[in-house]
Write a structure and sequence with these properties.
Elements (H helix, E strand, L loop, with lengths): L7 H23 L5 H10 L4 E5 L5 E5 L8 E5 L2 E3 L1 H13 L7 E3 L5 E3 L11 E2 L5 E8 L2 E8 L8 E4 L25
Parallel strand pairs: 7-10
Antiparallel strand pairs: 1-2, 2-10, 3-9, 4-6, 5-6, 8-9
Length: 187
């Protein structure tokens, strides 16, 4: 790996930026408030470096391109907000036209995010029975959003996973996560 040496002014600016971020974290931690809104705003301005690539779990997956600490927001799951009735229709349409995977994520009994055709990289996150992340619904300016948080430290090139927590159904979907404590099915 080639090392880059910074000139005096650039090194000074970089150090000031690091110090400012460090000071901001210290100030925020002084308030004993676990504010999802503050974290969400930080996520918007400091996006995690992620990539999608071939996965050992299933087709494509999402991978960290930087170290991610525990309990950090990793990515928001975005797509089109639809009602359950529309989600049921779309799921059947996707099956009919041969889309093997649909990316429907339930927020609550009234809203589902469909990332199948208009989502972001979060839709490539695979299920694991022993995940390194979890999904959480947060409310920002009166709108519910799905955010993926890290459960534990995640290393560079490690695949991002979470438990899909599908409801138990008669028709089982095989789990491919391969973890020692794999349940065998997603539902």
């Amino acid at each position: 790996m080639q090392q880059v040496s910074l000139t005096g002014e650039k090194a000074k600016n970089l150090e000031q930026t690091r110090e400012a971020r460090s000071q901001q974290r210290r100030l925020l931690s002084a308030f004993e408030v676990d504010s999802d809104l503050l974290k969400f705003n930080q996520l918007k301005f400091r996006k995690k470096q992620l990539k999608f690539a071939r996965s050992g779990i299933h087709d494509w997956g999402l991978f960290a391109m930087e170290d991610i600490a525990a309990d950090e927001m990793v990515i928001e799951y975005v797509g089109q907000r639809i009602r359950p009735l529309i989600a049921d229709i779309r799921e059947k349409q996707y099956e009919t036209i041969g889309i093997g995977s649909s990316y429907l994520f339930r927020i609550d009994s009234e809203s589902i995010i469909d990332a199948t055709k208009c989502g972001n990289l979060a839709r490539f996150i695979n299920h694991s029975c022993n995940p390194n992340c979890y999904a959480k619904i947060i409310t920002v300016d009166g709108v519910k959003k799905i955010v993926i948080y890290s459960k534990q430290p995640i290393a560079v090139n490690e695949e991002i996973t979470y438990d899909y927590k599908f409801p138990i159904e008669e028709d089982k979907i095989s789990c491919l996560c391969g973890t020692p404590n794999c349940r065998g099915t997603l539902n």
